[in-house]
Write the structure tokens for this entry.
Amino acid sequence: MARGRFILLEGCDRAGKSTQCAMLVAALKDKGHSVELCKFPDRTTTIGQMIHAYLTNAKELDDKAIHLLFSANRWEAMQSMKRKLEAGTHLVVDRYAYSGVAFSTAKGLDLTWCKNPDKGLVRPDLTFFLDLPTAEAEKRGGFGDERYEKRELQERVREVFLRLKGKEWVMVDARETVQNMHYKILKEAEEKIRVGEQDGRFAEEE
Ligand code: TMP
Ligand code: MG
């Protein structure tokens, strides 16, 4: 059996990642695929609760300490994610290591230092970057509720994301309608799944 595909959606806050992840999971399920949603940070774990306390300003943490907690929150999910991929389940993932590096680097930490703790995590097969100008994000409901939802930081985050952009990235204009974005994402994801059925590769981050 072919292993599942790891499909990642990345982007700045309020770009519509969670909506698109939910729509992609539903559409792939409808077409008969085995698929699950993962979200980072996963706020349900003990580490995730510390991250949540930090993001909602209930707790202060050193920049490096919170960076490592975000990474640990991915590592604690790794065994279960690998098992699912190996069993042929596709994973649609809402944020991952690119967010980890982009946000912490935008805060002023060293890029290489930020990348190190995520080395060895399972690598996405396909990454969508939902790109939204910060001025548009600010107009969307809820912007500003959490610690990082500030214009200047988000602009720097977007710049780092664009520096991290890899060959396998698919850029999605997040000013498009929800439906148009969905069609584009679904089409590319289905193509990746189709190709993946002929190739059992299981990549890890270098
Ligand atoms: P969320 O809004 O998708 O739940 O993400 C919460 C915030 O955490 C968001 O501003 C992005 C940030 N973040 C990091 O700083 N590092 C990470 O590793 C991840 C996954 C998210
Ligand atoms: Mg958020």
Summary: The chain has a mean pLDDT of 95. DSSP finds eight helices and five strands in the chain. The two ends are 25 Å apart (CA to CA).
